[in-house]
Amino acid sequence: MTKKSVGRVCISVAAALAVLYSAPEPEAEAIEQPVPFSHRVHSEVGIKCRNCHSLKDGFAAGLPPETTCMACHATVKKDSPAIRKLAEFARSKEPVPWKRVYEVPEYVWFSHQSHHVDAKIACEHCHGPVATRDVIVKEKPTSMQACMDCHAAYKAPNGCDFCHNTQ
Ligand code: HEC
Ligand code: HEC
Ligand code: HEC
Ligand code: HEC
Ligand code: HEC
């Protein structure tokens, strides 16, 4: 057997074992965030996505600074343990260490400005019905295939250097 095919056999054995010994693939697992922030609760309050995710650097959607939260939480529920923890981060001028859910590797070029503002693709298209979620899990793929399928559907370019800077 060549080295390559040994590798393949090992992978398929491992895959078969994984199927045998693991429970059915769970939905993307919920991540425990440092402060239990709910998109559902805040959407019901009437705050819009871009009040918190400003897209102002062109690429990232951006996470809100603690001052945005404290505009309300200096008074709203200020004695709850979760808000005390939030207030502590704000007081020490330390950003809340939110755990990332959607992330592509550094060698991939992705811009929220291009997709949301220019191509007018809704947040929900790529992130699901966030406004109804208490916890954000990765419910839409960010694989190369998922990007390319959508580019094909929208007749957007699919050349390698469109998403990978090959210089
Ligand atoms: C426009 C006002 C507003 C802003 C801005 C806001 N919140 Fe809230 N938040 C609320 C309201 C209203 C509730 C629900 C309070 C209740 O249950 O009575 C809430 C609830 C919460 C709770 C649950 C508190 C508990 O113990 O029940 C957390 C945690 C929280 N917010 C975190 C945040 C964070 C983090 C930010 C910034 C990213 C933020 N909020 C921004 C108004 C706001
Ligand atoms: C009050 C501020 C606030 C509003 C309004 C808000 N978000 Fe968020 N969003 C946050 C915070 C804080 C986090 C980080 C904690 C978390 O993942 O729940 C976050 C996380 C996210 C993430 C995951 C980021 C990652 O790590 O990949 C997505 C996607 C997202 N928000 C989309 C939306 C969309 C879509 C809307 C509108 C329906 C919205 N958000 C409205 C504050 C907000
Ligand atoms: C075409 C698909 C697409 C659309 C539309 C989209 N996103 Fe994203 N989002 C992504 C991808 C892919 C990532 C990971 C990007 C990275 O790692 O650089 C991401 C990451 C994020 C993050 C975490 C990292 C960051 O960029 O700050 C937040 C928050 C977020 N999106 C919110 C939103 C909101 C709010 C909207 C609508 C205003 C939106 N997204 C629209 C695909 C999309
Ligand atoms: C919902 C469909 C959709 C998804 C999903 C999507 N794209 Fe796009 N993308 C588009 C459209 C439409 C354009 C605009 C094409 C144009 O300008 O001709 C675009 C443009 C781009 C651009 C050019 C941006 C610029 O400023 O010139 C890049 C790079 C890109 N996409 C990368 C990605 C990557 C990486 C992913 C996956 C993480 C992704 N896209 C997912 C539809 C999508
Ligand atoms: C529409 C955007 C897009 C296009 C076009 C694209 N890629 Fe990718 N590529 C990605 C994304 C997103 C990832 C990262 C996937 C992940 O998170 O693992 C990736 C990952 C990769 C990787 C890392 C290894 C792997 O497979 O995970 C290689 C190598 C690669 N791409 C090569 C190419 C080549 C060669 C082409 C042209 C045929 C191409 N890409 C076209 C978006 C794209």
Tell me the layout of helices and strands.
Blueprint: H1 3-21, H2 39-45, H3 49-52, H4 66-73, H5 81-91, H6 112-118, H7 123-127, H8 144-153, H9 160-163
Helix pairs in contact: 4-5
Describe the structure.
It contains nine helices and no strands. It has helices at residues 3-21, 39-45, 49-52, 66-73, 81-91, 112-118, 123-127, 144-153, 160-163. Helix 4 (66-73) packs across helix 5 (81-91). The structure holds heme C (HEC) (5 copies). The site of one heme C has 20 residues, from helix 6, helix 7, helix 8 and helix 9. One heme C (HEC) is lined by residues 49-50, 53, 60-63, 102-104, 110, 112, 115-116, 121, 123, 125-127, 142.
In short:
It contains nine helices and no strands. The protein is mainly alpha-helical.
What summary fits the major beta sheet? none
In round numbers, the mean pLDDT is 86
Tell me the structural class.
mainly alpha
β-strand amount:
under 5%
Which short descriptors sum up this protein?
167 residues, mainly alpha, 45% helix, elongated, binds heme C
